[in-house]
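User: I'm writing a short report section on ligand binding and want a predicted complex to refer to. Could you take this sequence and FE2/S2 (inorganic) cluster and write out the structure as tokens? A short remark afterwards would be nice.
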Amino acid sequence: MFRRTVESTAATISLVVDGNEVRARAGESLAAALLAEGLLSFRRSAVSGVPRGPWCLMGACFECLVTIDGARQRACMIRAVDGMHIETGEGRRRLLP
Ligand code: FES
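Assistant: Sure. The structure tokens for the complex follow:
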């Protein structure tokens, strides 16, 4: 479970994820920031369409691919930066009822 938080003196930053503002802590990985927001699926399998999300959190599995400011990258290997724009493969699905 990724809901447990610890005290931090890190500054709060703002990200835009699938068009929605998301708060994060400066210095944390983008994958950690998205998981803390409850976003568990970052994309869909091209073969089966099943949801995919971070698994290894160390850059090996590529399950955390998102589009960051126009480039596909592993969210677990990128630090969250204020003003960053992220598109997941789930963005359009989240907008559907
Ligand atoms: S979670 Fe495995 S590469 Fe990011």
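A remark for your report: The chain has a mean pLDDT of 88. Helices lie at 30-36, 91-95.
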